[in-house]
Write a structure and sequence with these properties.
The structure is a single chain. The chain contains 12 helices and 12 strands. With about 325 residues, the chain is of the alpha/beta class. The strands form 2 sheets. The chain has a 7-stranded parallel β-sheet, sandwiched between helices. Helix 8 (about 180-185) links the parallel strand 7 and strand 8. Helix 1 runs parallel beside helix 12 and helix 5 (about 100-115) packs across helix 7 (about 150-165). It is globular. The chain binds D-malate (MLT). D-malate binds near residues 51, 74, 76 and 285.
């Protein structure tokens, strides 16, 4: 019997082509699905391909009585109830490699935007002014960049920052081969307090966990160099928004560049949106054509390999495999 796949977010044509070419696979790809549409359709699905558009929570999983695999076209699986998926024997897989360059390039772009006031200067000129005085910038060369998290994206940022002649520090207590990776890109591995006290720019590349939630808060900000700039293309929950906004207003933090918020989209009155020292974009880290093709194709391949061939790769809830 054919395995049926429900695709709840837009994916590139090349990902659908992988499914068309596969044996014993049918699929529904209606584009961006609303939650009630997912609830109504998920009962016939053996597999799902998702991005971040739908929260796959206990209610959706309960309705998914045939579901065996969920492939996330992207890295973060914080929109899936992993414990509930494991309880139901559903493997959740992600595609961590495909969008790291896209995220790293955005982090570098945001750092340059902060250093040279590019968004504010652009808006000023679009409003009819010719103001060459207000937007005096600083160079990145010789500045210290502190990377919180030194996995794929952190390392990709480091390689690019090295080309900008920055000194690079990194903190990552979870990476087993951090020393080797650090040597390859001339990065100094340091503890978090050293990073806070020495970095001119701090760029976050960690997942949200009990240890990292609210990592950038009043206490950690107080340890940072006055005038530090913070970049976040990872997850909004790493930052206590009120604390960072207060530090920006007091001048302790000179600016921030944000791609991610908690929650998303940020509600009206979100403390970090609209401050002149903050550059913000709407979660565009993985939004390049190349990255979407890479993660979409890989997600389709993961679903086919697991359902058709019984080969499970990139499983995030590993406990499910022991059942
Ligand atoms: C990811 O987790 O892959 C990125 O944040 C992009 C996305 O959510 O689609």
């Amino acid at each position: 019997m054919a395995h049926h796949i429900l695709i709840t977010d837009p994916v590139p044509e090349s990902a659908l082509e992988v499914l068309r070419q596969a044996k014993d696979i049918t699929f529904d790809a209606p584009g961006k699905m609303e939650r009630d549409q997912v609830l109504a359709s998920v009962g016939t699905a053996d597999g799902m391909i998702i991005r971040s558009g739908v929260k796959v929570d206990a209610e959706i999983l309960a309705a998914a009585t045939r579901l065996k695999v969920i492939a996330r076209a992207g890295v973060g699986v914080d929109n899936v109830d992993l414990a509930e998926a494991s309880k139901r024997g559903i493997a959740v897989m992600n595609t961590p490699a495909g969008n790291s360059v896209a995220a790293a390039e955005l982090a570098i772009g945001l750092m340059l935007a902060l250093a040279r006031n590019i968004p504010a200067a652009h808006s000023s000129m679009a409003e009819g002014r010719w103001d060459r005085k207000t937007f005096m910038g600083t160079e990145l060369r010789g500045k210290t960049l502190g990377l919180v998290g030194f996995g794929r994206i952190g390392q990709a940022v480091a390689r690019r920052a090295a080309a900008l002649e920055m000194r690079i520090l990194a903190y990552d207590p979870y990476l087993p081969d951090a020393t080797q990776a650090a040597k390859e890109v001339s990065v100094e591995l340091v503890d978090l307090d050293t990073l806070y006290t020495q970095a001119d720019y701090i760029s976050l590349h960690a997942v949200t966990s009990a240890e990292t939630r609210g990592l950038i808060n009043q206490t950690s900000i107080a340890k940072m160099k006055k005038g530090v700039r913070v970049i976040n293309v990872a997850r909004g929950a790493l930052i206590v928004a009120d604390d960072l906004a207060a530090a920006i207003k007091s001048g302790q933090v000179a600016g921030a560049a944000l791609d991610v918020y908690d929650p998303e989209p940020p509600p009206a009155g979100y403390p970090l949106v609209g401050l002149p020292e903050v550059v913000h974009v709407p979660h565009l880290g993985a939004s390049t054509k190349e990255a979407q093709v890479a993660v979409g194709v890989e997600a389709a391949q993961l679903v086919v390999a697991s359902l058709v061939d019984g080969i499970y790769k990139n499983v995030v809830n590993q406990d499910v495999l022991n059942r």
